[in-house]
Structure formats: structure tokens, C-alpha cells
Design a protein that fits this description.
- The chain is mainly alpha-helical.
- It contains 8 helices and no strands.
- Helix 5 packs antiparallel against helix 6 (about 90-105).
- The chain starts with a helix and ends with a helix.
């Protein structure tokens, strides 16, 4: 997400950003980030899940939601089902469903096609070597 604290917490970088790029970033943030802030987290999750299931492979699963699902299953489902301490197979099945969904997403190959306009846009950005990047990160901390 563009508006996260880690992005905002780089004051020296923001000062050096050309005004044109800053304007483009703010316009993008207003059109993408702010509308999504009006939705609650659960509404976003419901919307994401509905969209995810309808999309054909390949898909990129939202790992945070999968981990939340696993945590919720662990906290809400008992390990045993009765006084006899029988195994709760429904809990195990739910865990399997989440993990197998993540594994299946890794099996579907991604076919990336070159998009000339994107390649041309990205080529305009200056290249940053590792030493310059390290110096910038050190200056920000």
C-alpha cells in the first residue's frame, strides 16, 4: 500500500523527489489508497476472497489473509471433539484447505509478456547502484 508509515517515514527522500513525481504519486495515492481506506478490513477481505475465487490461474494469494485464516482455525476449533479425545478432522481439513490453496497457487506458471509502454516507462527511471541505495537507507535511519 502506498500510504503506509514506512513509505511516509523517509523525509529526506520525499524532499529530493522531483515535484512532478511527487504530484503523480499523490494523485495515485488519492485515487487508489484513500477509497480503500473507507472500507473496513473485513469488507476488503470479503471483496478480495470473492474476486480471488472468480479469477482464473495463475493467481497470487494474499499471504496475510491465509495466515489469519490459519490462526482463526487454530483459535476457534478444538483439537479434540469429545471427552474421548477423538481427533477433530474438520479442523485438520480446514487447515489443509488453506495450505493446499497456497501450494496450488505456486504450481500455476506465470506467463509474462513484454509490454512496450511499461518497459519504456521504467527505462526512464535512473539506475541506482547498491552503494547509493545503502547510503540513502543509512541516511534515512
Amino acid at each position: 500500500m502506498l500510504g503506509i508509515a514506512k513509505t511516509r517515514g523517509l523525509p529526506q527522500t520525499w524532499e529530493e523527489l522531483p515535484k512532478k513525481d511527487l504530484f503523480n504519486f499523490l494523485a495515485l495515492e488519492i485515487s487508489v489508497v484513500q477509497p480503500s481506506l473507507k472500507q473496513s478490513t473485513s469488507e476488503k477481505a470479503i471483496e478480495y476472497r470473492a474476486s480471488y475465487t472468480q479469477q482464473p490461474p495463475p493467481k497470487i494469494p494474499h499471504l496475510e489473509l491465509a495466515l489469519q485464516d490459519l490462526l482463526q482455525i487454530e483459535q476457534q476449533e478444538r483439537d479434540d471433539r469429545s471427552v474421548n479425545k477423538l481427533i477433530n478432522f474438520q479442523k485438520r481439513r480446514s487447515i489443509y484447505d488453506v495450505i493446499s490453496g497456497l501450494l496450488q497457487a505456486q504450481q500455476d506458471p506465470y506467463i509474462f509478456m513484454e509490454v512496450f509502454q511499461i518497459k519504456q516507462f521504467l527505462a526512464k527511471f535512473p539506475r541506482v547502484d547498491a552503494k547509493t541505495l545503502q547510503r540513502a537507507l543509512t541516511a534515512e535511519s
